[in-house]
Amino acid sequence: MSNDPLIIFDTTLRDGEQSPGASMTLEEKVRIAKMLEQLRVDVIEAGFPVASPGDFNAVKAVADVIKDSSICGLSRALDKDIEAAGEALKNAVAPRIHTFIATSPIHMREKLNMQPDDVVENAIRAVKKARQYTDDVEFSAEDAGRSEPEFLFRIVEAAINAGATTINIPDTVGYTMPHQFGDLIRQLIEQVPNSDKAIFSTHCHNDLGLAVGNSLAGVLNGARQVECTINGLGERAGNAALEEIVMAVRTRQDVFPCDTRIDTTHIVPTSRMLSRITGFPVQPNKAIVGKNAFAHESGIHQDGVLKSRETYEIMRAQDVGWSDNQIVLGKHSGRNAVKTRLKELGFEFESEVALNSAFKRFKALADKKHEVFDEDLLVIVSQTSEKEKKAIYSLVFSEVCSETGETPEAHVTIEVEGKEMNAKATGGGPVDAVFKAIESVVNSNTELKLYSVNNITSGTDSQGEVTVQLEHDGKIVYGHGAHTDIVIASAKAYIDALNKQASVNDRSHPQHNSI
Ligand code: KIV
Ligand code: ZN
Fold this sequence. Notes:
The chain is 38% helix and 21% strand. By secondary structure, the chain is an alpha/beta fold.
């Protein structure tokens, strides 16, 4: 069996970020991009540059620093989109422009209001225009899963003739079954006369829980690029999960005639980092990266695993980045120990200033907590202080009185754009009182949609990790806070969400705006 390269195209920063509430700041995107580079992802889709100045700058910032992965910018089949992508990718070592247009009857009729001939013409024009900026051009037939195969053959042939080097076949609405999606890829490769001039790619959404199954069916039928995201983040039910694709192909080399160049030991740290940054928790039973993915609860399984690991384990936890070395540091540990352990977890500091600031937070935590675990360290580095983020709001002080039989009362001091403001409020419980006190200063007009607390590690001295979801005018933001005191963690999470809400910019959505 030949071992073709299977290209991993990660779209966490573009399709993943389209997931409501998952928006990331420029610094957060650069941090994730660096993790993806260490993971040895082949192509990083960094965003949709024309969407807003913020998106443009983020793609540019990623393109400026990443050297070992190609950087891709998305564009509709419009000159202004392609020009913005070309400009944002100017400094990339290996730039790719990804241009797309919808090809299903329903999308062409209802969204584009265009005739099929015009769609083909636009695709050709867009690919040619993109080729003026780079030789690496990807063309996607949006909603290919519901497109007429004959029309797909025609537009794909035209796109390749115009210069597309990758042809992406999205199951945009997660509608196809694995055997259908596999057949579609096979037919395209067989029927399109110039198919040997391009790499065929999958891009499957998870609406029926089949994103990974469909992508793998595509690979078995000749696709040599898979588009995917860390933790399966993405619109609606998400995308194909990178970790599942990579580990399925790596574990079943008896089935797949190809393999990726991914360094799988960085999978878990990257997953955790993304979860911390976006506030989207990873479900415990999630394959590969869930807390229970390698836990053996039942007595029979434990017995089997102790006798021979392979009785119940098909992969090794260490190979995907789970570490046995859980207790790492304590209050006597120095800066170098913190830096070294974080490096082992895949995180590198950009500057001495960033290391010093993280070390300060480490010391503060180690004072309260006996043992600092890997999870604690990742929280420390994923939550840069409000000041570093140049946030509008930051928590200066909070105090809550909560006694049996008495109504809890909270006092808070919040810095609002450099000015300290005090407030107090009562509430049904201590967290409610703190949120009301914060609101009496901020008056955000948001609705609290979700509040959840998880312990980051075990033990009553663990940090509590609080996630809140706020909604305002249909826009959703998540906030995240961690502290050994869960009331303070709650206040931090609420303020984090308010800051995100204040910075949510108006950007256009690539697939909701017709051309
Ligand atoms: O799901 C989709 O069709 C997309 C395209 C823009 C590739 O994300
Ligand atoms: Zn998509």
